[in-house]
Every structure is written in C-alpha cells, then in structure tokens.
Design a protein that fits this description.
The chain is mainly alpha-helical and 60 residues long. Helices cover 62% and strands 0% of the residues.
Length: 60
Amino acid sequence: MKKILRKSADRKISGVCGGIAEYLDVDPTVVRIAFVLLLFITALIPVLCAYVVMALIMPD
C-alpha cells in the first residue's frame, strides 16, 4: 500500500509536522522538536519558507 503525505488532524498550526510524523510513523512531538531545532540551528527564513510551502501544497 502506498503512503500519502497529508496534513494531520493532530495539528498545532497547520498540521504539517503531524502529517510528516504520520507518514514516517513517528511521534509528532519528535518531528516538532526537530523542526524547532532546525529553526535555531540553520537560517530562519529558508526553514519557515519550506514550512509555508508544505502547508500550501500538502492536501488536507
């Protein structure tokens, strides 16, 4: 069975991290923490742009 990357119903902002967690079959908290760490470790703007793009193109 093919997995489809979708926004999650377990959403805090737009469901992107929850959807990625469901796709990877991991806890959503782990993905959210990884996202926040990426924000602090790398440049802020590219990570936020990637999040916004994913929020716009991922199906509900």
